[in-house]
Amino acid sequence: MRVLTCLAFEHHLPSVLLAGLVCVISCLLSMRLLRRSEESDSVVQVAWLVVTATCLSAGIWSTHFIAMLGYRPSATVSLQVDETALSALIIMCGALIGCYVATLKFTFAKALAGSVIGVSVTGMHYAGMMAYNLDAIVAWDMRYVIASVVFAVFFGALAFEASEKFDKGLHRLIPGGLLAIGVVSLHFTGMGAMTVVSLGVSEGLDPVTFQILALTTAVTTLVVVGAGGAGYAVEASLRERTDRRLRHLALHDIVTDLPNRACFTALVEQAIENRKGKNIAVLVIDLNRFKEINDVWGHQAGDAVLCDIADRLRGHERPGGYAARLGGDEFGIVFPVEGETELVEELKLIESLFMTPVRHADFEIVTNASLGVAVYPEDGRDCETLMRNADLAMYKAKTDPLNRIQHYEHALGEAVRQRRELAQDLRTALETGELRMFYQPQIDLKSGEVCGYEALVRWPHPVRGMISPAEFVPLAEANGLIGRLGDWVLETTCEEVSQWPGAPKVAINLSAIQLNDPHLVGKVLQAMVSTGLSPSQLEIELTETALIHDLGQSLNVLRRIKALGGSMALDDFGTGYSALETLRRFPFDKIKLDKGFTDGLSDGGRSRAVISAVVTLAHNLDIPVLAEGVETADQLDLLNMMGCEQAQGYLIGRPAPSVNGQPPAALDVMWRPAEQAATQASGHAG
After folding, report:
1. How far apart, in whole angstroms, are the C-alpha atoms of residue 78 and residue 261?
2. Is the separation of the CB atoms in 454 and 497 below 8 Å?
3. CB proximity list for 75: less than 8 A, separation 6 or greater
4. Cα(326)–Cα(331) distance, rounded to whole angstroms?
């Protein structure tokens, strides 16, 4: 009752309201700053602790000082500067200690911190009252004094305990409100403990001066507290923007800014949940020969391709549909469809997005893609199943160059899984040295002597046995391993052949991907230098299909390799796109007739006429001809009769590995000189 009487009749109400406003603002902000300091580390935490203690102590001291200036006793009043400064020092030190204790990690640390603040507020209040000189007799009621201390400590401990529990939404106001209640209850209970009997003999400060001091103190404190609040707001805004950026980076690809795999998974789940009776199509898209783009033009060009494709997909997004980059050169798309017709049309539009070349720097990069499709609910009733089945369908599409869009079928699963396992085994084989080089001899039909060898890579799989190059070479091309495979073949062949006696010539096949490698000539030179293989021993074999991929680049590479001293052979002649144009433009040293022409020798005159024409053409160009696939003595006789200079095939020798630094031997072949074969052939004709 005494507290209410003191508040109602002995205080200037505007000053009381101003003190309360300062108290509430400073306590609310200080508790938020305290939470920020608890979340910080190291030097940043120390800085926030100082800011928190400054705002808290300034607000509480100003509350006390303004409320005291609003006190209207029946006696004259004066203020002592020393005691007033002491009260400010007490609350500042107490606030620093209390805020620091609040950041410690032990039981009841928060309650202890609040209690320290409560004791500091009590010390500040009664030290401040010592500076408040009254021309009167002052009596203190210890019941109210004790009650004021209890209020300060209790509400201080309660406020700090609540700071961690109430940290969301409007509940964040609770800790600051409790602390403000503790400060206000301490002050006015302490003021109620004081009874003043005026003597009326001295002059003190007049009420107007008190009001000016109170207003000045309030404004100064609010500026200090406001500065802390502004710092908190700016830092909170920066944190929020940083958090948003981090969340964006966590869910988006850093190169293309498309959603990443984790985000795409959530989008597929959301599409299934919101499908409204429609089917949901999930596409997994893989760019074909993307590793070749990186190897030939560099990773900057690869990133340019990815970004261009991402822009195309982003621009094509339909309502309810989303595109994402799943990683590497894989993209994903999810969209709702009404039926099969709509799905087919949409797939054609998406496929067309990958057909336009990508412009980078001063050249165009041509790419295409393999698309795998799985549809909810037929191909899966959950996100994981749909994405796995779409991935299987995509992998199947990569193996079929004539059908780049594959729908998931249940039969695909096992076959695709086996191919994936084989692709992984091939990676392992390249790393562990499972592959072997075999060599097939070639003979000169004029002398019957071995004139060279063709290097052929073989894979003796530890479980599946010998795997045909016809199976694993396309697998290497589809999985970006052909470059590594080609490099291994080049290095291993040069190393083994360099140890053979007699310095025989060896032919090595190059793929289109290797031919577009800007470092190919350097690799060839390095292989010869490191192994000691003479340039005259190395013959590079290329197919017309490989050459046609980039005629200008191919011609440049061939001329540079010839400048090193190597020779060139056109492999599988007659099966490409424009054989005569190829011979005209490229500096070949040998033509290799495809095995299909050799097989056709026994069928009649057409194959013989073609071979005869090729041999005549080659002789006019001063280029020798080697026939592949010779398996019978009759074939060898006919080829010899037509003027073919060299031959290779099972009749002459099967591919075999090098043993003890020796090349595989050719078989003893019964053959007749060209004149004798021609005479006998004329006799048969007569």
Report:
1. 73
2. no
3. 134, 135, 136, 196, 197, 198, 199, 200
4. 5
